[in-house]
Amino acid sequence: MQTIYSHNPAHTRELGRKLGALLRPGDLLCLQGDLGAGKTTLTQGLAEGWGSRDAVSSPTFVMVNQYRAADDTPLYHMDAYRIESLPEAEQLGLDDMLAVGALILEWPERIEPILPQERLWLTLSHQGENERQITLRASGARPHKLLNDLSLA
Fold first, then answer.
1. What's the total number of domains in the chain?
2. CB atoms < 10 A from the CB of 84, how many?
């Protein structure tokens, strides 16, 4: 487990850029946090680090956004907030997404029982008007490598 304190949205975005540059297909990032905790800001940085020039927005109403790297590899950005059941979540094809790209999942706690065990879980919480605490918990070899590489970046 690692805890990072972000002092402003630019710092949160920079953390995302560093982590996004380390991602590869099959990586699952679970972003947990209240509304306004910085999940979209972090995702903007993740997409930039991935190599995407696509505009990043919250997928609350469309369920899944897709951003493409220069080599056309997809980065999926999914919001589980409106998912009403695990069978509904199973129909979204998480495994298919992870087979070809990386996946950023907001509100993962709503569908946690069907998520792969190998994942990097990021919990974002308010620590003041602009300051955020970001706790990263790795489960599995690849997520642990991401944490280690991130600390070196």
1. 1
2. 8
Please report where in the chains the tokens 């955020």 appear, as a residue. Answer: 132
Question: Which pair of structure tokens corresponds to residue 19?
Answer: 């982590």
Query: 109: helix, coil or strand?
Result: helix
**What is the domain extent for residue 15?**
2-152
Strands of the sheet containing 64-68, edge to edge, are: 2-6, 132-139, 119-126, 28-32, 102-106, 74-79, 64-68
Quote the CA–CA distance of 80 and 138 in Å, as a whole number: 20
Q: φ and ψ at 152, to 5 degrees?
A: -90, -20
What are the CA-CA distances from residue 105 to residues 5, 65, 128 (Å)?
A: 21, 11, 24
pLDDT surpasses 90 at 138? yes
For residue 152, what pLDDT is reported?
73
CATH of the domain at 23: 3.40.50.300
Nearest Cα to Cα of residue 137 among 115, 120, 118: 120
137 burial (CB, 10 Å; 0-12 / 13-18 / 19+) is: middle
Q: What is the structure's pLDDT at 82?
A: 83
